[in-house]
Structures are given as C-alpha cells and as structure tokens.
Write a structure and sequence with these properties.
Blueprint (H helix, E strand, L loop, with lengths): L13 E4 L3 E5 L2 E5 L1 E6 L3 E5 L2 E5 L12 H9 L12 E6 L3 E5 L2 E3 L3 E6 L3 E5 L2 E3 L6 E4 L12 E4 L2 E3 L6 E4 L2 E6 L2 E3 L6 E4 L2 E6 L2 E3 L19 E4 L12 E3 L1
Parallel strand pairs: 1-4, 2-5, 3-6, 4-7, 5-8, 6-9, 7-10, 8-11, 9-12, 10-13, 11-14, 12-15, 13-16, 14-17, 15-18, 16-19, 17-20, 18-21, 19-22, 20-23
Length: 244
C-alpha cells in the first residue's frame, strides 16, 4: 500500500529501475499513483497480482457520468481530497520481455501499460472499470517510431473501461487472441501507427458507448475495431491489420 487508505498525493507504490529481472506474485497493490513502475529491466514477471485504487479512489467510474463530470474529476488530480491522481495499475517501460499472468486491474485510472517493450505475453488478465484503456501497448513517441512489439495478448477479459479495451500505439507484430472486450466507452480494439496487428477469435460486444474517455477528453470511438495513423511506420513486410 502507498498509504493506509486512498490518498491522491501518494506517488508510485513500487518503482524499480536497471535490474536484470523483477518478479511480483500473489499480492495486492493499492492506494497510490502507479502500482508498479519499472524502467529498463530485462525481464518483468507479474503473476496473480491484483492492482486496485491506483490513480483513482474508485469513485465515479460508472458509465452514467457526463464528459464535464469526468473532466472535473481529472482536473483536481493529485490534490488532497481528489478522487484522482496520475497513475494506474502499472507502467512497464523499456523491458526486453514481459509476462503478465492472471493479474487484475480493478477501478484504476490506467490498466496494464507496456511501453517500448520488445517482447511480452499478457495472459488471462482482467481489467475492470479502468478510467483509461484496459490493456495498452504504448509508444514513448506516440507514433510508429517506437512502441511495444511482439506482444501476445490472450484469454483476457476487459469490461467497462472508459477508453479502449485494448489500445496499441506503434510497434509491430502484436497479437490479440481469445479475448473478451465488453461495454467499453471507446473502440474495443484501437491501433494507432502500428503494423502487423493480428486479431483472432475475440468477442467484442457493446463497445463504442461514449464519444469521450474517463478523463473527459474526446475518445477513440470510431468503430468496434479501428486502425488509424501512418506516422513513422516500421515496415514489417506484413499487413497493417489481420482480423479473423
């Protein structure tokens, strides 16, 4: 715990940098900005970890909220008494290999964020009512110049998140298979500036419900599956998108 109860002024609960490896299993991480933040670690493994009330107190996550209300909550982030801080379940940054297995992000601001990672597996994880995307392959440059590549996202369940269920920015050769995305505010799967994104055997229902996201900005709500952007693309010698 970052503190005994929710406190928006608390920073990251667990922060590790420049190690050969990091393993976290069979614990709950709560009450802070980011639950776990790693940088430049070769191998990061999280198994059976629950991340909750991180970046958010868990209040005001229901889909009946207006854009103005969500923006007002976000505008007070980090201030004593606020229900928001700038964080989320995790931010895994610059890892050579990541394995997330049977982890849960519950009532957090952001879900599982993997940024500029070379390889990874996200297996049988659940993201529930996050204020941003549930599973996020992130690019430090926010275009195709960087990003996470060779991600295998399988058997995951993303429900009622306030942006995309699964968001991929940049990177190449990422696969989403056997996942369920239900009730999210924006597109179930969104790809920006990415190549060789493969979607196979997924169940995507009742998404694209709002035009805005959980911090009150306009959302990526264009279609159940949406691919867009061509800035600094990396030629993977494959297709931009394969959806089966």
């Amino acid at each position: 715990m970052g503190s005994a109860s929710w406190d928006p002024t608390i920073g990251t609960v667990l922060y590790f940098r420049d190690f050969l490896g990091f393993v976290l299993f069979d614990v709950t991480v709560q009450f802070g900005g980011y639950g776990l933040y790693t940088r430049s670690i070769d191998r990061v493994v999280c198994e059976r970890v629950t991340f909750q009330f991180l970046g958010s107190s868990g209040v005001n996550h229901s889909m009946d909220r207006t854009q103005a209300q969500m923006a007002a909550d976000w505008s007070t982030r980090g201030v004593a008494g606020s229900d928001r801080s700038d964080g989320g379940a995790m931010r895994i940054r610059g890892a050579a290999n990541v394995i997330l297995s049977q982890c849960t992000a519950y009532h957090t601001l952001r879900g599982f964020r993997l940024q500029n990672c070379a390889w990874g597996q996200v297996l049988n994880c659940q993201a529930d009512r996050c204020l941003e995307s549930g599973i996020y392959g992130a690019s430090g440059s926010y275009d195709g110049q960087t990003g996470s590549s060779n991600l295998f996202i399988s058997g995951c369940n993303v429900t009622e998140c306030w942006n995309n269920g699964i968001l991929i920015i940049g990177g190449v050769r990422n696969t989403v298979t056997g996942c369920r995305v239900y009730g999210c505010a924006s597109s179930a799967v969104m790809g920006w500036h990415t190549q060789d994104l493969t979607l196979m055997g997924n169940t995507l229902d009742y998404n694209v419900r709002k035009t805005f996201n959980g911090i009150g900005n306009d959302g990526d709500a264009y279609g159940c599956v949406m691919l867009s952007g061509d800035s600094n693309l990396i030629d993977s010698e494959g297709y931009m998108l394969v959806a089966v």
